[in-house]
Each structure stands twice: as structure tokens, then as C-alpha cells.
């Protein structure tokens, strides 16, 4: 998976300092902190996204909107920019601004408290169609299996390094998109199947008010063994700016990650980023808090409620990293925190990836 390949790269504590976090969460279960076990928990989270089916999904979904006669939500030319983890203060602000613009575009403020979802209905001429990839784009076929109120796209093997389609094409499964809009919301369900396994199953719901809009993503992703349940909500208002809430649970390991990112204003240069991150499980609880501005930020790390580390950065300078006793962190402790930081940096990527296939279903009419 594109997200996972990023996560597995070496992530320095500079990333954490640049990410900057805000408002500690609860201290979580009172169990001893086990950095090795925490790193294993993070790897389990990562593995849920690491299937070849997810890699194929993230590559080919870029072409779905064009096949349905709509402009892509995220253009293929912008793919590397949008799906690259934010590793600096500027990149994080840029990712937040892109997310806010995307939510605003899909949920324009309405002139009343009600929101007509009829505009989200899939066009009759494509409903029930199965599409296959040919010559760099998707074309409709006579193959059966697509839902009457949706479409099906075949997906193919991709190179795990370049994420380009393997030539000649090797069909590995399909992505099924179903329109589930109601009287007051636009909604679409996405299901990714390869062989006999459903690797991804989630629903995207969009709603608008007079002051802004909200998009939620709920469902799960699995590699066939490890399952991660996802609940993601992004809200944009003119007065409050952007709020991104991201919850991920891995039942097999009894691990939960809760992340809140807030951005005041919509200007990349002047926006202030506040983030609250907490991870809890059988290997202890870690929370991180701080604020990121154009000039820098401070990150406070707590383990089981106790002060564990402080990371401070001023502008583009190297961060100052100290433990609770003023000493450097051990390698094991640093590795565990790096894994958690990486999850934080992937939040906007996960949001983008989940939205890409359903732009046609959610995009409002003129």
C-alpha cells in the first residue's frame, strides 16, 4: 500500500517535532510501558493496510471518476504530492489546507438546514456497469456482477515498489461502489474484494449546513489476518476552520489510536495546527500534545499519564529532544514513538485515499 510504504521508511524525531501536538488525552490503562510491544502493535496496524489488494486499489482508484464522466477528486498528476506524508511544518499545513478545500468542495454550505442528496444518485447510463482497465483508462464491459445502484471496477496487480500496473495486466479482484445516499446526506459504500477475501469495506458520508460541511468515513481494512476498524470525520466551518478526527482500532491486539487535528484559518502560511494523539493498549498508553505555528512548536509526550519526553523546535532548526530526566531516549523508546509519529503523519493520506474512489458519488451538482 502507498501509505504503508511511507510508514516503513525511517522516520526521525524531527518529524514529530514538526508535526506538533495539542491537548493530552486520557492516560489509558495503568500497565507498564513496553516499547518493544508498542512497536509490534504499530506494525500490526501497518500490516492491515499492507495487502497487495490495497496497493491495487490505491493505484487504480485514481481513474474511477474519469470513467464515470467526472473530474477526478485528486488528479493523477497530483498523486505524489497528495499521498506523501507531511514531514515538515509547511507540508502539514499544506495537507490540512488541501483537506479543508476538498471537504468544502464536496459539501458546499447550503442555504437551508436541509441537504438534497438526490444530486448524488449515480447516472442511469453507468449504473450496473462493470469496468475494465485498458489503454490507460477504464472502459465499460458486459461483464455481470455490478450492483444496480452502483458500479464495479476490476483491479490489477501492481509493482510493490513503483505502484505501476504489472504488464501484461493481471486481474486480481474488483472495487465495488454503491450509492447509499439518503434524504439529507450523500453517501457511497466502497468494497474491495480479491479472491474470497474482502480487504476493504467502508462508507463515505457527506453532509452540509449553512456554515460548512462534514465528511465521515467508517469501516475496516484488513490484510486477511489483521483487521483495523476506521472512523474518520473531517469538518470544515468558516468560523472554526478544519477539524479532523481519526480513530483506529485493532481488536486482535486490543489497540486503539485516537487523533484530533485542528487548523485555525485556511492560509497555509499563517494557520495554527493543534493535534491531540493518544495510543492505548496492553503495552501501555502514550499521549502527545502541542501546537505548531509558522515559527515552530513544542511536543509533550506522556506515557501512562507521566511526563516522558519534550521535543522543541524553532522554525527550521534541529529540534531539542529530552527525556523527562533531561537525558536522551533509548533506542527502543525512540523507535516506539517514531512508529506512533508515523501514524500521525498518515492521517491526511488515509483521508484522501478513502475519498478518491467516490468523487462522482459525492460531488454536488452545479
Features:
15-stranded mixed beta sheet; globular; single chain; alpha+beta; disordered N terminus
What's a concise summary of this model?
By secondary structure, this protein is an alpha+beta fold. Helix content is 25%, strand content 36%.
Task: Please write the string of helix (H) and strand (E) elements.
Answer: HHHHHHHEEEEEEEEEEEEEEEHHH
**N-to-C CA distance:** 35 Å
Strand count, sense and barrel status of the largest sheet are: 15 strands, mixed
Record field, number of beta strands = 15
**Contiguous helical run count:** 10
| Count of spatially separate domains | 1
What Rg is obtained from the alpha carbons, in whole angstroms? Answer: 21 Å
Report the uncertain regions.
Answer: 1-29, 75-85, 110-120
Mean pLDDT: 78
Strand order of the largest sheet: 2-1-3-4-5-6-7-8-9-10-11-12-13-14-15
Can you characterise this structure?
- The protein is an alpha+beta fold and 366 residues long.
- It has one domain.
- Helices cover 25% and strands 36% of the residues.
- It has a 15-stranded mixed beta sheet with strand order 2-1-3-4-5-6-7-8-9-10-11-12-13-14-15.
- Strand 11 and strand 12 (284-293) form a beta hairpin.
- Helix 3 packs parallel to helix 8.
- It is globular, with a radius of gyration of 21 Å.
- The relative contact order is 0.24.
- The model is unreliable at 1-29, 75-85 and 110-120 (pLDDT under 50).
